[in-house]
UniProtKB/TrEMBL annotation:
The keyword Transcription applies. InterPro entries: AraC-bd, Homeodomain-like_sf, HTH_AraC, RmlC-like_jellyroll, RmlC_Cupin_sf. Keywords: DNA-binding, Transcription, Transcription regulation. Residues 162-259 form the HTH araC/xylS-type domain. This is AraC family transcriptional regulator. The keyword RNA-binding does not apply. It comes from Thalassospira xiamenensis.
Length: 263
């Protein structure tokens, strides 16, 4: 069986001297694990189908259907895509657009999605007076106005928080209590609670719920059934999972993905 190539081995955005360029990547042709790497250009990751999670800036990010994860230039990052994932990457040269200086999730309008898709079909090294160049300028102006969303999990470099994050990412159904975690990492429960807030900005309960939301978005986008996702996250019932999802995003999983297929 032929080993699939890593996505970073087929394309180097820094070799193409344009303000913005787009590249479409189908993960049926590439390895799902994208190793830690860095490039000078900033990167916006959009999911056309399937799902991808990224690690960047001490946080875990998920790319939901109507959003993109923005990673500024020179920020080391890695990613894991589902087998059915097809992505559009938009690379932006330093200073070409007024985009955030830190990693974030940006809401992406249907117009911007179409413009990025069109740019991905054009020649990467387009002339500065070409239609592609004009399209890129308008797209970057519009992109700078897109609002931020919160589809990330702070994971911290603190060894004790990292240990917990790695364990919960590996087994998100783990319902170990804060008291038991404190015993496991040799801290008092109160000290661990303070450390989690200090390192992540969230209480333990909110932090674990945010992990569940990140995992749920990734798995649902990959085509997994709601019942299976609820079970994998350790919810006692599908209704309890749907309640969590609706409280976080304002709609049920079925409504959320139906709305975002229609935009």
């Amino acid at each position: 069986m032929t080993e699939l190539r890593s996505a970073v081995s087929v394309f180097d955005p820094d070799l193409i001297p344009v303000p913005a360029l787009a590249y479409k990547l189908d993960f049926s042709d590439h390895a799902g694990e994208v190793p830690l790497h860095v490039h000078r250009k900033g990167q916006l990751i959009l999911a056309l189908r399937g799902a991808v999670t990224c690690r960047a800036g001490n946080e875990l990010w998920v790319v939901p259907p109507n959003c993109g994860v923005w990673i500024p230039g020179d920020v080391p990052h890695s990613a894991r895509a589902t087998a059915n994932a097809c992505l559009n990457y938009l690379f932006v040269a330093p200073g070409a657009a007024d985009l955030p200086a830190t990693c974030c999730t940006l809401s992406i309008s249907p117009m911007i999605r179409e413009m990025i898709d069109r740019l991905a079909r054009d020649c990467c090294a387009y002339p500065p007076d070409s239609h592609a160049a004009r399209l890129a300028r308008v797209m970057l102006d519009e992109l700078a106005d897109m609002p931020r969303e919160r589809f990330n999990l702070p994971i911290s470099n603190h060894p004790k928080i990292k240990l917990m994050a790695d364990a919960l990412t590996l087994d998100p159904a783990d319902r170990t209590t804060l008291k038991d975690w404190a015993r496991h990492v040799a801290m008092s429960e109160r000290s661990l609670a303070r450390l989690i807030v200090q390192e992540t900005g969230l209480t333990f309960g909110r932090w674990r719920q945010q992990l569940h939301l990140v995992v749920a978005l990734r798995e649902l986008a990959s085509g997994e059934a709601v019942q299976n996702v609820a079970g994998a996250l350790g919810y006692e019932s599908v209704n309890a999972f749907i309640t969590m999802f609706k409280k976080a995003l304002g709609s049920t999983p079925a409504q959320y993905f139906a709305q975002n297929r229609d935009v």
